[in-house]
Design goal:
Layout (H helix, E strand, L loop, with lengths): L1 H13 L7 E2 L9 H4 L3 H13 L3 E2 L30 H13 L1
Length: about 100
């Protein structure tokens, strides 16, 4: 928690408006969260933080499908073969979004 507080303070001292910064755990340039830490429970905790803390939550496609790709280009899995099933994680993220709004 001290590290989070320190990061918040550093951001507030560096940026004029921290409410417009993006919060994310996955992106197209790095291995996905589940590749580095294969725990859905920890991923949900990280997503909770990203979606409820100050700033704009950004969801990289496939996180809701539990994609776990590694280094580029393996972190850019094809979404369509998943049939866009509404997984437990998909529904969990939707509930988080309802809480946020």
């Amino acid at each position: 928690m001290y590290n989070i507080r320190t990061t918040f303070n550093e951001e507030r001292n560096t940026f004029h408006d921290t409410s417009i910064l993006g919060n994310f755990i996955d992106n197209h340039d790095n291995p996905r969260f589940l590749n580095l830490q294969p725990s859905v429970t920890l991923m949900k905790g990280a997503l909770t933080y990203a979606m409820t803390s100050e700033g704009i939550p950004i969801m990289y496609y496939g996180t809701e499908q539990l994609f776990n790709g590694g280094q580029d280009p393996y972190d850019r899995e094809a979404l369509w073969p998943t049939d866009l099933k509404k997984t437990d994680t998909y529904h969990w993220i939707a509930r988080l979004n309802e809480v946020r709004t």
